[in-house]
Amino acid sequence: MIKPVLGEEEAAAVADVVRSGWVAQGPRVAEFEASFAARMAAAHGVATSSCTTALHLALLLAGVGAGDEVVVPSLSFIATANAVRYVGAAPVFADIDLATGNLTPETVEAVLTTRTRAVIAVDQGGVPVDLDAVRAVCDPRGITVVEDAACAAGSTYRGRPAGAGAEISAWSFHPRKLLTTGEGGMLTTGREEWAVRARRLREHAMSVSAAERHAAAGVIIEEYAETGYNYRMTDLQAALGLVQLRRLDAVVARRRELAARYRKLLGEVPGVLTAADPDCGETNYQSFWILLPDGYPVGRDALLRGLFDAGISARRGIMAAHREPAYEGVRADLPATEVFTSRSLILPLFHEMTPVQQERVVEVVAAAR
Fold first, then answer.
1. Which of the following is catalytic: 39, 56, 177, 197?
2. For strand 69-73 and strand 44-48, is the pairing parallel, antiparallel, or unpaired?
3. Per the structure, how many domains does the chain have?
4. Residue 264 a catalytic site member
5. Segment 336-354, tens digit of pLDDT
6. Residue 211 and residue 334 in one domain
7. Which cofactor does this sequence's record say it needs (predicted)?
8. CA distance 83 to 361
9. Would you call 215 helix, strand, or coil by DSSP?
10. Are 224 and 286 members of one domain?
11. Helices in the chain by DSSP H: which ranges?
């Protein structure tokens, strides 16, 4: 359904790292951090083992801890809410806008309390959240807004890369994303002190990194001033990421071309809403979702089965964390989220997709009864 764009250039880059003998976190990671941060208009990049670990570090840097509350959308992969629990805080679910799948200033403000320390604003499926509007609610209250840009590499917000306007953002390089390192993530921030601390925390909070010790002229004895984590990226992954970063613009352009064709074809299916650019920016179409209207001839699950029977790989729409057993008992009055997670599905969209394949997908959707 979603396939990474990989080729011989990636294979050669990884092979070069293997031949170098330095396969752990090292010079390629540093190069990838600098290149990715520059592409996303961020001052600092800190590579991590995943977006989830980047979110964990972001909350630690923001000073979130036990007794605090963090506002998150339930409509997101469960890692968004899980990261809040990692720091001992309580996730508070806010509703979303049906047109974008994202938090709004109104839905955030509705659930703020005196215990709110942070908000995680997700660029759902690559659709950029209206970050300035959310920050206008949070900044005067001293609430840190963390942008969960897991899906947003290549998306834009008000003419700049998504994530550029956040104090801190977290990114994913999972194979379902447009830019992949197999597994892996990145934290970007404009605050140097946060970047310095994040680099320590990801490597067991060592005062001097392994790479720095290796390059030193003499003996260095490191110290451990706080509890840290093993959240490192390898040079193997970073080498892959550097090639992928060079492909990003072409990959986004192709996905936007395919999405425009989907939207045109699906315009003939009454009532179906599709993923689209918000007023505040452009999406990379990491996911192309459709939302079935109330009273559609078949339900979402029946349509998924029909697509499967026709040999088409589609997925349910974005999950809602509050429906999962892990979050049973967490208060959740989320009418728009309930509609979105119950009636949406994600259609196949990949770089090599042909017009005939797209037409077949839409044909099955339109014929569903």
1. 177
2. unpaired
3. 2
4. no
5. 999 999 999 999 999 999 9
6. no
7. pyridoxal 5'-phosphate
8. 36
9. helix
10. no
11. 8-20, 27-39, 51-61, 79-86, 105-109, 131-138, 192-201, 210-215, 235-266, 300-309, 335-343, 355-367
